[in-house]
Design goal:
It is globular, with a radius of gyration of 20 Å. It folds into two domains: 3-116, Nucleoside Triphosphate Pyrophosphohydrolase (Alpha-Beta Complex); 131-340, Alpha-Beta Barrel (TIM Barrel). Helix content is 30%, strand content 24%. It is built from ten helices and 15 strands. An eight-stranded parallel barrel has the order 8-9-10-11-12-13-14-15. A four-stranded mixed β-sheet has the order 4-1-6-5, sandwiched between helices. It is an alpha/beta fold and 347 residues long.
């Protein structure tokens, strides 16, 4: 069913200084009455999405939404109510949120958020909310891994909280001592890492999950790891994105958006091509290919979860901190590393 025949609904995710998320309870008489949802409502004909979001939040919560960025768009077919759910992450507002229309509203701790009874269309939103806007893909580690570990510690210290270890030239046994050091680092920085390789390696090395190549993705008929692990997938087209959703991957990486130094002859999508593919995806999608943190706003406004990068994130600690500060100032995320940490824990 095309998006034009769907009811266009906007919703805002508000997160307070304690990491709690604001939910509203649907009236008992409404469709899915008693369920908890992100506040928002229908876009009126001819109304711009941002203006609709501001209006709905003003009407429902009595606050003025000053700044937000797109988080995820989900098409969902309820039996009689096909919807296009357009969810934004609020970063700045004025006033104290309250149930202006008499509805119950509640600040909910991120860790227990997945336990709330919510409409099915909101479930991918929880996943998007649990993921940070920046996803580091590491370069190949050297045989002497000391410098690699030091650089990784600096990147984590600057605020990156999701990392893909890409070590195609190392055996499982060679990776064990490196990953032992990595697990300590990630625990210290409350960050997560996945390995680009066989899912059995993720279990053997104590990773938080696995990142699937496009070839491995298409060979699967179901999710390769339990829900307590992260599953990411590399995608290049609509078919691969659809299959990632089908096997219930947590997120995908799509590219290349721009030409890259490692693959200069590869055909790039451009932002319009990226947006067109992401529009039909039912999971969070990172943009990849020649990107920097300065491209984060472009990724958001073209439907992406954020950016994935090697060179753009594998930088000195001070360079990365300055880049995160600049991005935070420009987007309203704030200038601290905590802005790049996850908010919720996937259920």
């Amino acid at each position: 069913m095309g998006t034009q025949s769907r009811v266009h609904v906007v919703a805002a995710v508000l997160v307070d200084d304690h990491g709690r998320v604001l939910l509203a309870e649907r009236p008992a008489s409404a469709h899915l009455g008693g369920y908890w949802e992100f506040p928002g409502g229908k876009v009126e004909q001819g109304e711009a999405t941002w203006h609709a979001l501001q209006r709905e939040i003003r009407e429902e919560l009595g606050i003025e939404l000053l700044q937000a960025h797109p988080l995820i768009r989900i098409s969902h077919d309820y039996s009689e109510h096909p919807v296009l759910l357009d969810v934004w992450r609020a970063t700045k507002w004025q006033g104290v949120p309250h149930g202006r229309e008499g509805q119950v509203v509640e600040w909910v701790d991120g860790e227990v958020l997945p336990a709330r009874t919510m409409p099915p269309a909101d479930k991918p939103v929880l996943t998007a909310l649990s993921l940070p806007p920046a996803y580091l893909v590491t370069p190949e580690p050297d045989i002497e891994t000391g410098e690699f570990v030091r650089r990784l510690a600096g990147v984590l210290g600057a605020g990156v909280s999701l990392v893909q270890l890409r070590a195609k030239q190392m055996t499982l046994e060679a990776l064990r001592p490196l990953c032992l050091e990595m697990r300590t680092l990630f625990k210290d920085y409350n960050a997560k890492w996945v390995i680009n390789g066989p899912e059995e390696w993720a279990l053997a090395l104590g990773a938080d999950g696995v990142h699937l190549s496009a070839q491995r993705l298409l060979s699967l008929r179901e999710r390769p790891l339990p829900d307590s692990y992260l599953v990411g997938a590399s995608c290049h087209d609509k078919e691969e994105l659809a299959h990632a959703e089908r096997i219930r991957a947590d997120f995908a990486v799509l590219g290349p958006v721009n030409p890259t130094g490692s693959h200069p002859s590869a055909s790039s999508l451009g932002w319009r091509g990226f947006e067109a593919l992401v529009a039909s995806a039912g999971l969070p999608v990172y943009a990849l290919g020649g990107l920097q943190l300065a491209d984060l706003d472009s990724a958001w406004h073209h439907g992406g979860q954020g950016i994935a990068a090697i060179r753009g994130l594998w930088r000195s600690t001070e360079e990365l901190r300055r880049a995160i500060h600049d991005v935070g100032s420009a987007t309203g995320l704030g200038a601290t590393a905590n802005a790049f940490a996850k908010t919720t824990t996937p259920g």
